[in-house]
Amino acid sequence: MKKICSVIFICLTCFTLNFSTPALAIASADGAQIFAKNCAACHANGGNIIRRGKNLKKRALQRHKTDSIEAISTLVKEGKYAMPAYGDRLSEAQIEAVAAYVLEQAENDWR
Quick one: angle between helices 21-38 and 2-16, nearest 10? Predict the structure, then answer.
């Protein structure tokens, strides 16, 4: 338990000091796992099996003004239309991690 706390503290310290690569790498890995467990069924490879135009590709995120971590986090937390809200299922940190992952994947064209 002490080791886990130490690792978390170091990551947060690095992020705060603007040495964010290790912290972002961990967040991205966490985001990928959270996405796979909660989002991929409907949004495989950034698509959308319910509404094709409401996908997670960069162009669609920009068109719908959801191309920021804050906007994606709000959408994940509150849901919208057919997408359920995850605010009661995921912590704030998990929501931010998955939002960062989605934005990163969109920038890389979901490759």
Answer: 110
